[in-house]
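ZP: hey, is the S-adenosylmethionine complex queued? I don't see it on the tracker
AM: it wasn't, my bad. submitting now with these inputs:
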Amino acid sequence: MSRSAAEERGIAVFDRFVARPGSGYIASGFALGWIIDLVERRRPERILEVGSGIGTITSAVLEARDRTGAGGLHVAVEDVPFCLEQFAANLGPRAAEVVVVPRAADVVAAVGHVAFDLVIVDGGDPDDLAPEERHTFTAEDRAAEVAAWVALVAPGGLVLVENTRAAQRRDLEAQTRRRYAHEHVRPADATPGLHLYWFEPSPARRAAAAARGAANRLWFPTGLRVARTLHRRITGRPMARRRAVASGQF
Ligand SMILES: C[S@@+](CC[C@H](N)C(=O)[O-])C[C@H]1O[C@@H](n2cnc3c(N)ncnc32)[C@H](O)[C@@H]1O
């Protein structure tokens, strides 16, 4: 499947979920497309999803696994009651295929010492909560949660961080003693995209990550600025922004 076909699939999942209650912070169509592609290509046997929210990423993963015919363990971390209700409503009977725990620190008690091939991070930060609830989850809680899920990444495993999540990525980078290659997969229109952390990377993986970093430095911000100016001059219209990005409103 090509990247653009995967993104179309991601956008289809986004379009389904964006109409549902609590969709203001769901994953972008771009990130969903990448997740679908990674699941279909790499067929990770054990997936940990931090911040399953209303179930957008969960659905994308379940459907991708259906297409490959390869099942596997799917553990999700979520403790916001509204999200848990919506998750159950949106997934229906398929919710039973996912082990849901309140915190990453609870994963081992629920499923044992499992090493996860793919960890998807889209929650677990104070900013994920409504302003009046942020005091219930501190920066220390965030760091403790990062420590809990980082310890569960399999040798050669992959962590995908949806959107920017700078504080969690700082915690991750500060805490791990393992080798990793970092890639910022940033759409050409400068919407946030996602971050990949390849643990124990091969030389080829390291080279690919370095090449993406070099391409990003060429394109952002100068290349994009030039492209936007040329587009406006030639067409008389501003360059279209990527659609399928959530509103950011609770
Ligand atoms: C970016 S959202 C996760 C969305 C989820 N991955 C999805 O795409 O459906 C991050 C976190 O926001 C928190 N959250 C708190 N209140 C919420 C609300 N009203 N609606 C959605 N998420 C909420 C949840 O804990 C959730 O895990």
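AM: back. The longest strand covers residues 153-162.
ZP: great, adding it to the tracker
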